[in-house]
Amino acid sequence: MKFNTILKSVFIMASLIVLASCSDDNDSNPTPVYTVDFSGSYMQKDQMGRPAINTVFVNSDMKDAFNVTIPSEQGASFASMFEANLKALSPAYANDGDTNALGLDAATFASVLATDVLTVSLDGPTTFYDGTNVLTGRNLSDDVITVELLLIFGGEDFSENPNLSDDNVSANDKEFLSSFPYLASPW
Q1: How much is the pTM?
Q2: Where would one find the signal peptide in this protein (predicted)?
Q3: Of 58, 120, 164, 171, which has the maximum CB count within 10 A?
Q4: Contacts of 111 (CB under 8 A, 6+ apart)
C-alpha cells in the first residue's frame, strides 16, 4: 500500500513537471517530420482473418507455419488438418454425408476455413451471417463466435448440439457509436 502511494506521488510530480514545462505559444519550431524506414526483411508473424479459427483448428506444432503461409496457399497446405480436427471436435460431422447449414460437408467446410481471410462483399450486405448472407464481411455487431459455433456444431439446420452452438454473449457490453471510430467508448 505504501509503495502504491509513493508511486502515485512520483507520477503526479512527473506529470506536473511536464505540464509546467509546456508552452502554449506558437513559437517557430516546426513539428518534426518523421520518416519510416521500410528497408530490410519483414515477415508475417500472426494472422486471424476469422476469429478463433486459427486458434481451434491449427495444431499447436503448426501455428507458426500456418501464420506465415500466405492465404492463397493455406487451403492446399492445411485443409486436411482442419478436416481431421473438425471431425474430431464436432459430432455434427460424425456420419458420411453430414453437412452444415451452408450445405458444406466436412472436407469442403475445412477447405473454406483453412483459407483464413475475411472476405468482403463489394456489392451486397457486409455481414458475417445475417440469416441469408454468410461470410460477406463483418459488422462490429456480428456475433462471429456464435456463427462459427453454429457452422461447426449446429448441423444441417443449426439444431444439432445446441449446448455447443452458442457462446451465450448476445450483445456488446456497450452500444457502438454511430460515427467514426464506431467502437464503443471505454468503460
Answers
A1: 0.71
A2: 1-20
A3: 58
A4: 75, 79, 82, 83
CA dihedral 13, 14, 16, 17 (to 10 degrees): 120
CA triple 176-180-182, angle to 5 deg: 15
Q: Nearest Cα to 83, choosing from 67, 98, 101?
A: 98
Cell digits of residue 182: 464506431
What confidence tens digit (pLDDT) does each residue in 46-75 have? 777 887 888 899 999 999 999 989 899 999
pLDDT tens digits for 10-55?
556 656 565 555 555 555 666 778 888 888 887 777 777 887 888 8
User: CA nearest 153: which of 170, 136, 135, 166?
Assistant: 166
